[in-house]
């Protein structure tokens, strides 16, 4: 599955082989991998300084996922596309760009070569547009149940077909 997903996705730079199994285990059924890049994550430490961990960032049609792996520790953190409120970049020294993905509750920073940053940001923004937004324009994030209720009202009025309603409802149920 890893090889198929990598062939379909835009692989921005060489992905270390130690991540192959983690990618396979992390992707959900039907989840399409769009872009993959290796880089570094900021990891706050107890003494309030930052350390950086090598890892990879995956952009799928459903989530932004960061992964890192040490000898004894694996970490996978995913943020649903529908929960992302903003994506920003900060240019640093030596051709490094920090991509900041923000939700109402958390932030995810990823440092990558400046050549790869535009493709990652574009992929995230494209998936946000394709998901129809998250209501963040008005400062509200709608939960999946509320969205299903609104879809049901549109369906009962004949605005959505049975197939359109079923497809969108299935997408939203995966978020619960």
Notes on the structure:
- By secondary structure, the protein is α+β, with helices and mostly antiparallel strands.
- The protein folds into 2 domains: 2-131, Pleckstrin-homology domain (PH domain)/Phosphotyrosine-binding domain (PTB) (PH-domain like), CATH 2.30.29; 142-174, no CATH class.
- Helix content is 31%, strand content 35%.
- It contains 5 helices and 8 strands; from the N terminus they run αβαβββββββααα.
- Helix 4 runs antiparallel to helix 5 (162-174).
- The longest helix is centred in the C-terminal third of the chain and has 14 residues, at 117-130.
- The two termini are 25 Å apart.
- Residues 134-141 have low confidence and may be disordered.
Q: Can you lay out the helices and strands and say which pair or pack?
A:
Blueprint: H1 2-8, E1 10-11, H2 20-26, E2 33-44, E3 50-60, E4 63-69, E5 74-80, E6 84-91, E7 96-103, E8 107-113, H3 117-130, H4 144-156, H5 162-174
Parallel strand pairs: 1-2
Antiparallel strand pairs: 2-3, 3-4, 4-5, 6-7, 7-8
Helix pairs in contact: 4-5
Outline of this structure?
This protein has 176 residues and is α+β, with helices and mostly antiparallel strands.
């Amino acid at each position: 599955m890893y090889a198929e997903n990598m062939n379909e996705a835009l692989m921005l730079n060489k992905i270390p082989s130690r991540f192959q199994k983690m990618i396979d285990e992390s992707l959900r059924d039907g989840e399409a991998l769009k872009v993959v890049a290796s880089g570094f994550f900021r990891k706050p430490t107890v003494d309030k300084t930052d350390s950086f961990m090598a890892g990879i960032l995956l952009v799928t049609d459903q989530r932004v996922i960061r992964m890192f792996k040490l000898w004894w520790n694996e970490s996978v953190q995913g943020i649903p596309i529908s929960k992302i409120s903003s994506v920003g970049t900060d240019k640093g020294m030596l051709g490094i760009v920090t991509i900041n993905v923000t939700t109402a509750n958390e932030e995810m920073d990823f440092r990558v070569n400046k050549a790869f940053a535009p493709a990652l940001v574009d992929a995230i923004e494209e998936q946000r547009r394709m998901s129809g937004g998250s209501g963040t324009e008005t400062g509200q994030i709608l939960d999946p149940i509320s969205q299903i209720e609104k879809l049901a009202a549109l369906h009962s009025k004949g605005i959505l077909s049975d197939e359109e309603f079923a497809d969108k409802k299935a997408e939203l149920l995966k978020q619960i």
